[in-house]
Amino acid sequence: SVLGTRFKHIMDSLLWENQASGLHTKQIISLFSESVLLYLERELDVQYDATNHVVVSQLHVLFSKVRAQVQHPWNVEKLAHESKLFVSPEHFGRLCVQHLGISPMRMVVELRMEKARELLRNTNMPLTEITEQVGYRNYFAFLAAFKRMNGQTPRQFKYHVLP
Asked: Which of 113, 13, 34, 102 is nearest to 70 (CA)?
């Protein structure tokens, strides 16, 4: 359908723009996102709740910041404060689960592991330095978290060794 083709073009552009960094990138992403919502509203015949949009938008901004600063000692209180949603840490946690399907600290751990895998793949940094770069003060805590999330140790991951 024509609508499907248009929607695909907008999604492709949104994904491309999300990977770019340049003048007005945030504004362009916002406009593409708004277009996606309008197409979905029209196609699914639903009314969009602006409050939910604000919450989801703020959560995405927050977790983009966390992704850029995974080494920071994040906790739920700091995340709630940084979210600019002006809610208690408990309510912030509920909002994350409701809108993202994941608890805030689980999201932090996933972002840290994403960064750890990237560093393991693309650098020759010692594991102790990677541990610090991804926000762990203790190598053994990092090792346990990495193995729990990836099914193998960081060393096995780096050298493609089967567990």
From this structure: 113
Q: Which pTM was predicted?
A: 0.69
The pLDDT, as a whole number, for residue 35 is: 73
Tokens 């977790």 correspond to what residue? 63
Q: How distant, in Å, are the alpha carbons of 76, 78, 96, 97, 129 from that of 82?
A: 10, 6, 13, 17, 26
Please report where in the chains the tokens 């567990």 appear, as a residue: 163
Residue that has been written with the tokens 């729990």 in this structure? 148
> What tens digit of pLDDT does each residue of 46-61 get?
455 666 788 888 999 9
| DSSP code string of 28-94 | HHHHHHHHHHHHHHHHHT----HHHHHHHHHHHHHHHHHHHTTTS---HHHHHHHTTS---HHHHHH
Q: Distance between CA atoms of 43 and 47, rounded to whole angstroms?
A: 11
Spatial neighbors of 130 by CB under 8 A, at least 6 apart, are: 116, 119, 120, 123, 142, 154
The residue among 125 and 53 whose pLDDT is bigger is 125
Q: How far apart are CA 98 and CA 81, in angstroms?
A: 18
Alpha-carbon distance of 153 to 144, in angstroms, equals 8
